[in-house]
Amino acid sequence: MVREKLPNAIIGFFMHVAFPSSEIFRCLSVREALLRGVLSADLIGFQTANYARHFRQTVARILVLETLPKGIQVDDHFVDVAVFPMGIDVKTLTEKKREPEVSHWVQVLTERYQGVKLVVGRDKLDEVQGVRHKLLAFEAFLDKHPEFHQKVVLIQVALQTTEENEAHGGVTDVVARINSRFSTLTYQPVVFLHTEDMSFAQYLALLTVADAFLVTSMREGMALRTHEFVECQEERHRPLILSEFTGSYSYSGFRSCIAINPWDTRNTAKAIYQALTMDDAEALSRWEDLHNHVVTQTAQAFVTSFLTRCLRTNIEHLQGDSAAVSKLDSARGTLWDRDPREQAFNPPDEALEVLGKLAEDKKNEVWLLSGLPVNGALGYVAKKVPKVGLVAENGCFIRPGAGPSTGSDPAWINMVANFNLSWKTACIEILNYFTERTPGSFVEEREASVVWRFCTHKDSSDRQWAKRQAAEAQNHIFDSIGERYGLRIIPGETSFLILPN
Questions:
Q1: How far apart are CA 171 and CA 173, in angstroms?
Q2: Whole-angstrom Cα distance, residue 231 to residue 21?
Q3: Whose CA is closest to 145, among 262, 266, 279?
Q4: Burial of 162 (0-12, 13-18, 19+ CB in 10 A)
Q5: Per the record, what is one GO cellular component (predicted)?
């Protein structure tokens, strides 16, 4: 809608939450409209590389558009897709944590929990935040390590959400069970604060006195509360226990945390023990890595990076538009078509004669672009009209036209000589799997590329099924070998091409 009203506007779209896999997104009834709307932006940003990959795969699968590691080709324009890590305002937080009220609450909490280790968590009370899994892991920790009875307390701050009533029951039951099992007259192992009344000063004080900060999210973007914890630990350097399913964990700077799978209760309990018994030297080393990420990937850095990239992308698009020529459809400019089911192909002599006459004129430089391999029809063309330049396999091989600088019989130039072509074996294996399940489809293996023809007749009754299979095949290839080998997948109406990027 914005693009329709303001065709030349600079539009950047940033996804602040996790983007689902294509399997989940395809369940939406308005999936195509949503994707088309987002693709009207100049730049689409995500918090992690995984979320960006999910988006590209979803677009390839549902809209059958060409996707590249840097973005998506949409009709006559290219949409950039990039990753921008979120951060916090470190300068403001540093000023806040030095306020007298924070110091007061640090003193209060230190006196109240003297001689006790504090494990702190702060999450919204919904299923995806994994609060119940956190409590179960803490219970398992107390069962496994009786020496920590009356020596450790979990303070869990639960923020209110729209799902709180449903989630609240399962969480409070576990809290009640833990406290009934391990409490004494003077000790309560879990302090569960389901309130919005906690001030920011109290929250910062809690982060400052914590001996470990525990995040057990099932799926989350950038967990910025972990950044706040790291900054508040400037003096104590205590460890962070972080779910692998958060966006923060995907960045190398946060790999110095203690990583957990929140579904694995036993190992999460081990992580709690590791954090509480970690020596100061290791804790300091881990904290320094975490802190370096926090102070470099700030909120200001995020905004600057995103806006700069958005402006640059828009300028590139405008420059591309100003130099653009009218788009050719699939028929215009095509000298001859061939039946993909037929191996042999002889270019018509009439067309070759016309090309030869054009190439004889010194004012012209004639090139013939083809997806065909070097041997076969293009070899025949090279002999019949040697002055015509040839491009084979969609750019993988080039043969300049004969002339004073190239000689009478120019050699083919391999443009992918430095590429690792071992991917073809795995690619063909995947395509053979889909060929067995798609009537009329077949694989064409070339020297440096592979083509899968999934629908040889545009009016075939199996066309819709074939297109779905093609989308699945592209998705699978991109997932398994695409990024590893730097492959480009170019979709067409009845086939798609895989070649080095």
A1: 5
A2: 33
A3: 266
A4: exposed
A5: cytosol
Return the number of other C-beta atoms located less than 10 Å from residue 417's C-beta: 10
What tens digit of pLDDT does each residue of 446-459 get? 888 899 888 756 55
pTM (two decimals)? 0.71
Q: Is the dihedral of CA 239, 243, 246, 250 positive or negative?
A: positive
What sign for the dihedral angle of Cα 297, 303, 304, 305? positive
β-strands 240-243, 258-260: how paired? parallel
d(CA 292, CA 90): 12
Angstrom distances, CA of residue 13 to CA of 45, 48, 295: 6, 14, 25
**Eight-state DSSP code of residue 127:** G
In whole angstroms, give the CA distance from residue 274 to residue 376: 66
Rounded CA gap, 473 and 64, in Å? 11
Amino acid at 260: I
CA 500 and chain centroid, separation: 21
- Which one-letter amino acid corresponds to residue 309? R
Among 23, 38, 48, 49, smallest CA distance to 72 is for 38
Helix H, strand E, coil C: the string for 435-487 is HHCCCCCEEEECCCCEEEECCCCCCCCCHHHHHHHHHHHHHHHHHHHHHHHCE
Is the model's pLDDT at 158 over the cut of 60?
yes
The CA distances from residue 117 to 110, 234, 256, 334, in Å, are 10, 18, 21, 75
Q: In a 10 Å sphere around its CB, with 0-12 CB exposed, 13-18 middle and 19+ buried, how is residue 464 labelled?
A: exposed
**pLDDT value of residue 378:** 81
Dist CA 238 CA 283 (whole Å): 6
Which domains does the chain carry? 1-83 (no CATH), 90-298 (3.40.50.2000), 349-406 (no CATH), 422-500 (3.90.1070.10)
Q: Tell me the β-bridge partners of 398.
A: 391, 413
- Cβ contacts of 232 within 8 Å, gap of 6 or more: 93, 97, 204, 207, 208
Q: Which amino acid is at 49?
A: A
| Dihedral sign of CA atoms 367, 373, 377, 378 in order | positive
* Least confident interval from 258-272, 281-295, 339-353: 339-353
**pLDDT tens-digit series, residues 53-90:** 899 989 988 888 878 778 898 877 889 999 998 899 99
- Helices 31-38 and 49-62: angle between axes, nearest 10 degrees: 120
397-399 and 389-392 strand pairing: antiparallel
| Token pair in block for residue 336 | 């001859």
Percent of residues, the chain, with pLDDT higher than 70:
91
Phi-psi region at 104: left, alpha or beta (left = phi > 0; alpha = psi -120 to 50):
alpha
Q: Which helix (H) or strand (E) element contains residue 370?
A: none
Calculate the CA 76 to chain-centre distance.
24
User: Among 82, 143, 22, 120, which residue's Cα sits nearest to residue 313?
Assistant: 82
Among candidate residues 7, 2, 1, 62, the one with its CA nearest the CA of residue 317: 7
